[in-house]
Queue: 2 jobs
Job 1
Amino acid sequence: MIVVTHSEAETEALGQRLAQCLHAGTVVALFGDLGAGKTAFTRGLARGLQVEEPVSSPTFTIVNEYPGHPALFHFDLYRLKNAEELYDIGWEDYLNRDGICVTEWSENAREALPEDAVRVSITRVDDQTRQIEVEGML
Ligand SMILES: Nc1ncnc2c1ncn2[C@@H]1O[C@H](COP(=O)(O)OP(=O)(O)O)[C@@H](O)[C@H]1O
Ligand SMILES: [Mg+2]
């Protein structure tokens, strides 16, 4: 599926919509450059999971956890050197915790992504326009 959005709000709305189609244990792997809209998409996803806390990039902590329905585990892999480091912080435990794992900068840990991860690739077209490709939705 390819969707073109024309504002941050539209990208959030897409994330919110996709949240309805996810079940606990799913990994949503986000791909795209700085400023593509990965965090915006994640905010929408969080809204769709009824997360009440504000969502921001966990750049310094690698992962933020938000209670929701189900819980959201928001990873930012920007500073990761390899997939090994992700396992070091307990990636496999997160995968087994019946939440939704969303990963920004998935490029940095491709080997750690499960086969059945939903892949979301965001490309900047111009200032307000983003092309968003969603692969692997059931
Ligand atoms: N269609 C769009 N979708 C998402 N963000 C957009 C869009 N158009 C403009 N933007 C802007 O792009 C930036 C996206 O930031 P952010 O979500 O933090 O990106 P990332 O997490 O990928 O680095 C925000 O400043 C946002 O306002
Ligand atoms: Mg971000």
Note: Helices lie at 8-19, 38-48, 83-88, 91-95.
Job 2
Amino acid sequence: MQYTAEFLTKIYRDLYSVRVFEEKQVELYALGKVPGHIHSGIGEEGSCTGVMATRKEGDFVKISHRPVGAGLLAGTPLETMFAELMGRVGGNALGLGGVLHMTSLEKGMVGFSGTLGCDAPVAVGAGLTIQMNGTDNVSYVFYGDGTSNRGPVHEAMNLAAIWKLPVLFVCNNNQYAISTPTSFSSPVPNPGADRAAGYGMPSRVADGTDPLSVYEAAQELVDYIRAGNGPAVLECKMCRMRGHFEGDQQKYRDLSVVEQWKDQDCVAKMEKYLIDNEVLTAEEIAAIRGEVAAKMDAAIALAEQSPEPTPEDLYRNLYAE
Ligand SMILES: Cc1ncc(C[n+]2csc(CCOP(=O)(O)OP(=O)(O)O)c2C)c(N)n1
């Protein structure tokens, strides 16, 4: 596929922004500024970057617990995300939801349930809304390889397929569900893509460490969905580079395998591609990195100025006005 320099630069900026968000999460958590715990998505940014590049106005998105930085590609303001992460009232849920409940309804980001798998039926509901409104929008739902085994995911796929709803199921296969390798929980090698046939849906497997490979596969499926053909499944393969949570000792896996995946780092590979193809120079890449880092720091500073919620805030937003 031929790309413009503008498109490739946008992809890189998005990819690197999600990376820095993920790094900042780890940093803020280590400083004790995050109530609860986080799930770092470092190394997994290629998937959401490639998929979200196919998104347009009016689409719905359900991100997952990893990488949460995907929310910024859906248009959630950075300072809102950092405020929610740090439990401040400036967050989308007044800081009461925390990192697992990033939402931005006005941007089509329809929340995230801590009960894994239960997002898929909600995404199908969003797909039904689109169908009833008669637009060519898409409802995207991200989930992990472990989550792919849950009943609600299969019920959602079945309903979406029967009713030909515009849903793109995106399975991020990072090889593990906490300590359980995919091979222990799935009878097929591609727990996302191989399940699609059972519901008559098309599927693609993409290299989740390459946002362009993801984009090409996603675009093909999204074109199919926007044309009114019904749902599809995209599986992105990658490695979870850090523990399931910060402080996870990872006794259950051979960390030398993780070391090998470092050669496949999505950010480093994209930078090499841009330089080799004379899209950007090393200096231009450094300038983008600087801009992104400055934006993140400014958003964190703003979020930190936001106060913590009060007990009275518990009673706000209970009912729609
Ligand atoms: C229904 C349900 N069961 C268990 C959990 C606890 N849990 C949180 S993350 C996680 C692992 C999920 O694995 P996967 O879907 O592969 O995503 P990953 O964490 O690897 O990104 C589990 C079991 C949960 N949140 N919800």
Note: Residues 174 and 239 are 4 Å apart (CA to CA).
